[in-house]
């Protein structure tokens, strides 16, 4: 296998994308607080497990309006300004927590900081199309995904060590510091506009109807495929989150006290697989239409979840995790690209915020619903339900691709192939 050929998918990207990649690695490498949120609430602040769960749910739900507002702010003021302002404000609150004793006040400040970060969340996805030619957009999103996982492969491990040694205040300070560094990189080194000739121009998006003066509601009404895609992705994320909910509970039931170590190992295998295979899969699927890749990813989820249902052996768990992770890569690098390809520049912030809301709904309802299901069935039947739902979602994704090809307007797939041809000639 020619590794250099697969890594070449990241060559020729705009300079700003490489800066954003390094910024993402630094930011995620310092992501200590959110992964440890439950432990901070229970072991340091003194919440019960129920109180911690309720508090975390409320905190997640409170981010919804901030995502919506953030999307509107991005479309009005631009991605760069929103990232710099709200990432900086959020990090200052974390820095404040670093000099406080762990109390309820600290928990409240964490939530406020998370909401400030939520205001900036749509800006990161919206920035990529504004600095990347359309033909290279999938590669750019792939690099951002790789950077995020590189950082997350290191950060939580360091955070766990410092937390176990009772350095909570230092965790807040380091988290804030890495966020400030990554934000300053965006401020000083990201120009915010694509210089190449195939840049994403206003209203120049494939297969999408838009007028510069219309509202976001009018745009969505004229382009219902975006809502259909977001609803299908809600199903995808509802099923995907189960590997973080059902699987750790299942490993404890199957392997007893060793279950925690087994799940931690599976988590590490997921991260390593993402880092190793993301450039390879990006290269292999370079000319594959996004919906087709996401359909294949959904089928891989279906297979992996089915394996979880019938398995009690570690090697089968490992194989299933690798299969699931391949699906995760295909879905992640294509979903953001699909939204960007179909959305004119003036709506990118708001459409991305809407997409994050649907994604968040899947993440939030998945554990709640399947937790209730577990009171009636065992893990085997729970995974069968999830697997069947995943097959339904993948079928819907294939149907959406079929509907697009049958539409009277110019096929988005043909246009996508055209841009890939341009990219290959550059």
UniProtKB/TrEMBL annotation:
Transmembrane region(s): 20-40, 52-70, 82-101, 107-128, 140-164, 170-190, 225-243, 255-277, 289-308, 314-333, 354-375, 381-400
InterPro entries per record: MFS (IPR011701), MFS_dom (IPR020846), MFS_trans_sf (IPR036259), MFS_Transporters (IPR050171)
PROSITE patterns per UniProt: MFS
The UniProt record lists the keyword Aminoacyl-tRNA synthetase: no
GO molecular function: transmembrane transporter activity
Domain annotation Major facilitator superfamily (MFS) profile: ranges: 16-405
GO annotations of cellular component type: plasma membrane
Keyword Transmembrane assigned: yes
Main location: membrane
The protein, known as: Enterobactin exporter EntS
Organism: Clostridium fungisolvens
